[in-house]
C-alpha cells in the first residue's frame, strides 16, 4: 500500500460511511470531498444535494462554493432555495446530512457562529447557514472534522446546530424525531455516540493513531469503546480517485 | 410596467437612504454592478437583507453604507470569513453594525412569506438552536390542528429587491436560469425592484414554458449591464471568477488596502467595466 495522509484517511473513512441508496445533503469543504469520493467509488447512485438547490449533482471537480455552476450543470434538477428547504429538507427526503464545523462538543452540537460572547465576539464566524435545520431534519448526521483542541471543545461558545444536546434523551425531549449525529469521522478515528449517554465514543482508530493522540486533541475526557477496531486502510483505488479529484479541482480553480 | 433604463437611473429612482434593500443571489447571479452603483451614489443607513452576504455586503459594510444586516451565512464562499464585516462587528469600524441573524431555512421561508403576502413564515426549525436566545424575531407557534410547535419569523418585505439575471425582453420580462436561489421570491416580496441583465432580447419565444420568468409588471427597473454579476457568474454567459474571491481575502484584510481598492475599482469606475472583467471568463457556445 502506498503512503497516505491523515486527511486522506479521514476523507476515505467519511466516504465509506455513505451508502449507494443515500440521499445526502452535502456541506462544503471536507464533507464535499467525502461525498464525491463515495459517488466516484462504492456509491455511484448516491444522490448528492447542495443547499443552492442542486439535486442529484455529479460534479467533475469539487465546488469552491455551494453554488458553483458545475453543480447545476451536472444536476438531475435545480430547484429554488425556498423549495430546497421546504419540500426537500423539511419534507423529510434527506437520509444523511454531512456537516463540518468550527467547534464541536462531545454530543455533536456544532458552533459556526461566534468565538466568545455573541454580542461582543472575539471572532465573528460566518454563521449557521443551512445547518440549524439540516441538523434536525435529515435522517441522521455525519460529521467530519480534523481533531484539535481549538475545534473539539468541552463547552461550545454558541450552539449553532443541535446534536444530542446535553446527552441522553435531550434531543428527543426537544421534540426532534430524527437520529442526529451518528458518526464522527476525524483524521485520527471514528467516533459513534454511546447508545445511552449519546456521548461520542471512539470505536475505530486509524492506522498509526494512538489513544493518547486522540485524547490529547479533544477538550474533554475521551471515551473509548471496549472493543476498539482499526479502520481499514484506504485502498489503492480510493486513493487514486481522491487524488485525481483533488488534482482536477486544483487545476480548475486556479486556471483563469 | 418595467422601465428599461440605465443602472444609474434605476438606482437613483429606487434606492433611498435608510431603505431596506435585498441584493440577492445565491453564489450565482450576485448583483455586483448594482451594489457598486449604490455605493457610488452614496446611499447610507441601509438595512440590507441577504441569505449569503459575501463580497458586495463586505464592501458596503466596509464603506459605512450599512446600518443593519439581516442574514444567515456571512462568508466568502469557499474561502473564509468576511473581514470587513468582522471589523464592523468586532471593532465597530467604520461604524457599528446591527445584525439580525437567522438560518437559511428561516430566510428562505421569510422571503416566500413576503412574496405570498403573509405577515410571517412558519416552518419546522430552530429546534435546539441558540439563535433563538439572541434573535427576538424568532418565535414559536403551535399548529392549530396537531399542536406541533413550529418556528415563526416575520416575512421579509424589503423596500427594494436587486437581482441580476440572464436576459430581459424589450417589455421588461425577466428570465432567470440555473441556480435561481431566492431571487424570484425577493422581487415578489419587495415594494420595488431593480434587475440588471446580460442582454435585452425581442422576446422569450425560445424559452422553456416552465422557465423562471418574472413578468414585466412585477419588476420596477431593468438595466442592461453585461458582466454585471462579476466575480459571481451568470450561467450560460461567463464562469465564476474564483481567483477574485481568493484575492478579496487579501484586499479585505487591511483597512487601507481595502479603501484604496474600493476607490480604484468601484468609486472611480462605471458599470461598463463589468463587461471587460468577464471577457476572459466567457462560456463557449
Automatic annotation (TrEMBL), chain A:
Protein name according to UniProt: CoA-transferase subunit beta
InterPro entries with a match to the protein in the record: CoA_trans_fam_I, NagB/RpiA_transferase-like
Domain of life: Bacteria
SUPFAM superfamilies: NagB/RpiA/CoA transferase-like (SSF100950)
Matches recorded under Gene3D superfamilies: Glutaconate Coenzyme A-transferase
GO molecular function list: CoA-transferase activity
Species this chain originates from: Roseibium limicola
PANTHER family linked: ACETATE COA-TRANSFERASE YDIF, CHOLESTEROL RING-CLEAVING HYDROLASE IPDB SUBUNIT
Spans traversing the lipid bilayer: none
Automatic annotation (TrEMBL), chain B:
Keyword check for tRNA processing: no
Keywords: Transferase
MF (Gene Ontology): CoA-transferase activity
Domain of life: Bacteria
InterPro entries: CoA_trans_fam_I, NagB/RpiA_transferase-like
Protein name: CoA transferase subunit A
Amino acid at each position: 500500500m502506498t503512503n497516505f495522509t491523515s486527511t486522506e484517511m479521514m476523507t476515505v473513512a467519511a466516504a465509506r460511511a455513505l451508502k449507494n441508496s443515500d440521499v445526502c445533503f452535502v456541506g462544503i469543504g471536507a464533507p464535499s470531498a467525502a461525498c464525491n469520493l463515495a459517488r466516484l467509488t462504492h456509491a455511484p447512485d448516491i444522490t448528492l444535494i447542495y443547499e443552492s438547490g442542486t439535486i442529484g449533482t455529479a460534479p467533475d471537480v469539487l465546488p469552491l462554493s455551494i453554488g458553483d455552476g458545475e453543480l447545476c450543470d451536472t444536476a438531475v434538477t435545480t430547484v429554488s432555495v425556498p423549495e430546497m428547504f421546504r419540500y426537500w429538507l423539511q419534507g423529510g427526503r434527506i437520509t444523511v446530512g454531512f456537516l463540518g464545523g468550527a467547534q464541536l462538543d462531545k454530543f455533536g452540537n456544532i458552533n459556526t457562529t461566534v468565538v466568545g460572547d455573541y454580542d461582543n465576539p472575539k471572532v465573528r464566524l460566518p454563521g449557521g447557514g443551512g445547518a440549524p435545520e439540516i441538523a434536525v431534519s435529515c435522517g441522521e448526521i455525519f460529521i467530519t472534522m480534523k481533531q484539535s483542541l481549538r475545534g473539539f471543545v468541552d463547552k461550545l461558545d454558541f450552539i449553532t446546530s443541535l446534536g444530542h444536546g446535553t446527552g441522553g434523551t435531550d434531543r428527543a425531549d426537544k421534540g426532534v424525531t430524527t437520529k442526529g449525529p451518528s458518526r464522527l469521522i476525524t483524521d485520527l478515528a471514528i467516533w459513534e455516540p454511546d447508545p445511552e449517554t449519546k456521548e461520542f465514543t471512539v470505536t475505530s482508530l486509524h492506522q498509526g493513531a494512538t489513544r493518547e493522540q486522540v485524547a490529547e486533541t479533544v477538550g474533554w475526557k475521551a471515551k473509548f469503546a471496549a472493543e476498539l477496531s482499526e479502520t481499514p486502510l484506504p485502498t489503492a483505488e480510493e486513493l487514486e480517485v481522491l487524488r485525481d479529484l483533488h488534482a482536477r479541482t486544483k487545476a480548475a480553480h486556479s486556471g483563469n | 410596467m418595467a422601465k428599461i433604463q440605465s443602472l444609474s437611473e434605476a438606482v437613483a429612482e429606487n434606492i433611498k437612504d435608510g431603505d431596506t434593500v435585498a441584493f440577492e443571489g445565491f453564489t450565482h447571479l450576485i448583483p455586483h454592478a448594482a451594489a457598486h452603483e449604490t455605493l457610488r451614489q452614496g446611499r447610507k443607513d441601509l438595512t440590507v437583507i441577504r441569505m449569503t452576504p459575501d463580497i458586495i455586503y463586505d464592501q458596503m459594510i466596509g464603506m459605512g453604507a450599512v446600518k443593519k444586516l439581516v442574514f444567515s451565512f456571512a462568508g466568502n464562499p469557499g474561502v473564509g470569513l468576511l473581514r470587513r464585516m468582522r471589523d464592523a462587528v468586532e471593532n465597530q469600524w467604520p461604524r457599528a453594525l446591527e445584525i439580525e441573524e437567522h438560518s437559511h431555512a428561516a430566510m428562505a421561508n421569510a422571503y416566500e412569506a413576503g412574496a405570498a403576502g403573509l405577515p410571517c413564515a412558519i416552518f419546522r426549525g430552530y429546534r435546539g438552536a441558540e439563535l433563538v436566545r439572541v434573535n427576538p424575531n424568532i418565535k414559536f407557534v403551535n399548529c392549530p390542528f396537531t399542536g406541533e410547535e413550529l418556528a415563526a419569523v416575520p416575512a421579509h418585505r424589503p423596500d427594494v429587491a436587486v437581482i441580476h439575471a440572464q436576459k430581459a425582453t424589450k417589455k421588461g420580462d425577466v428570465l432567470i436560469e440555473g441556480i435561481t436561489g431566492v431571487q424570484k421570491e425577493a422581487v415578489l416580496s419587495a415594494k420595488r425592484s431593480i434587475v440588471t441583465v446580460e442582454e435585452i432580447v425581442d422576446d422569450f419565444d425560445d424559452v422553456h414554458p416552465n422557465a423562471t420568468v418574472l413578468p414585466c409588471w412585477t419588476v420596477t427597473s431593468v438595466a442592461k449591464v453585461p458582466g454585471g454579476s462579476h466575480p459571481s457568474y451568470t450561467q450560460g454567459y461567463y464562469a465564476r471568477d474564483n481567483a477574485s474571491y481568493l484575492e478579496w481575502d487579501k484586499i479585505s484584510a487591511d483597512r487601507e488596502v481595502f479603501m484604496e481598492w474600493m476607490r480604484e475599482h468601484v468609486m472611480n469606475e462605471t458599470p461598463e467595466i463589468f463587461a471587460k472583467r468577464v471577457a476572459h471568463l466567457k462560456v463557449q457556445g
